[in-house]
Amino acid sequence: MTRYVIIGNSAAAVGCVEGIRQVDREGPITIISDEPHHTYSRPLISYLLEGKTDRVRMQYRGADFYEKNGVTPLLGKRAASIDPEKKSVTLTSGEKIPYDKLLVAAGSRPFLPPTEGQETVTKAFTFMNLDSALALEKALTPASRVLIVGAGLIGLKCAEGIAHRVNTITVVDMADRILPSILDEAGSTLVQEHLEEKGLTFHLSDCVAKFEPDAAILKSGQRIPFDILVMAVGVRPNTSLIADAGGLVRRGVVTDEFCRTSLSDVYAAGDCAQSFDITTGQERVLALLPNAYMQGETAGIHMAGGGGKPYDRAIPMNAIGFFGLHIITAGSYQGEDVRMQQGKTYKRLFYQDDRLKGYILIGNVERAGIYTSLIREQTPLSSIDFDLICEKPQLMAFSKRARAKALSGAAG
Hints:
Its cofactor is FAD. Keywords: FAD, Flavoprotein. Residues 316-379 form the NADH-rubredoxin oxidoreductase C-terminal domain. This is FAD-dependent oxidoreductase. There is one protein chain. This protein has 412 residues and is an alpha/beta fold. It is 25% helix and 28% strand. It folds into 3 domains: 4-108 and 236-303, FAD/NAD(P)-binding domain (3-Layer(bba) Sandwich); 118-233, FAD/NAD(P)-binding domain, CATH 3.50.50; 324-411, FAD/NAD-linked reductase, C-terminal dimerisation domain (Enolase-like, domain 1), CATH 3.30.390. The chain has helices at residues 11-23, 45-50, 65-68, 130-139, 153-162, 185-197, 240-244, 289-303, 368-376, 386-391, 400-411; strands at 4-7, 29-33, 71-75, 79-83, 88-91, 96-98, 101-104, 108-110, 124-125, 145-149, 168-173, 200-204, 208-212, 215-218, 223-225, 228-231, 235-237, 266-268, 275-277, 282-284, 317-322, 325-331, 336-342, 345-352, 355-362. The chain is globular and about 60 Å long.
């Protein structure tokens, strides 16, 4: 009977459990997680603080998930090392957990650049997991002046989650626009104006030169007073367990199409692992929940001997909203483009070599799945009515044969 061990307890871990159980209903599964909580959806943290969800509804799977799938959860336990020769995981407590097949889904950690005076700030937080969000929540008051360093996805979702509970929110970022990793200049401007309407203040193309106990001195010389600091500069993949065991690591853990690492019987998935981005032809870390789940499921099926379900359709994709303004982006922004904007609705499609490469949708995001499917399936644009697709994505833009295939797939 195969013994499965999973390090991690988020989307990739859940995907792995469900992948294993598609093939092997009996082999014992152990989940090791340094967080003490039942598996939960990290993107819902901001909605928890906003009051739009609660601890039960933000669970990624139901309360009976572990029991139903024959999983032994070791929660609040940290994996210290992997011994690939003896096939065991050693916890920080010294306990050793043997395995036949191992998945490392260790996620990522906040990147905290060293800044003068940071140690003098008593109310400093990150916004990466449930415990950090709950600690931040306890510190908030209606009079709080909050400084968020970082105008990316994490920093702005934090701002949305706490905006109704504080006095002011100021966001500082060295980039020249907000959400620079997923939006172009026009899209970023549109979203920034929307956030400013909700009371946020931005200092862009600037950074913190040093901290005082209750203020930040920016490189430009401006002094920003604050009561609470949130560091949301970025993240780094947790690759040390694989690297220390002798596994191949670049920006993330290197894996093949079945999520196998260079270590025998050791797999990796989620934010700590690299993916092959079909839109660029490059290996990248795609720290996205849907990709993490698909990686984990592929790993689980293969760990259980189920053979082929390769993870080979990875693309960057984000579906997010801020104060009611919805955004979906996918793929890479290269080649020629089609652009449309009206008020707070913005669309930009990128295409190259007869293929849709990527898109940005803001405001009206209906039927974004059609664009996503075109990218994932690498559909030749010459085989569809691309002008119609640009204006209004719909199945009528496809050939009769392609429509029949899409409809049968939906029915299945």
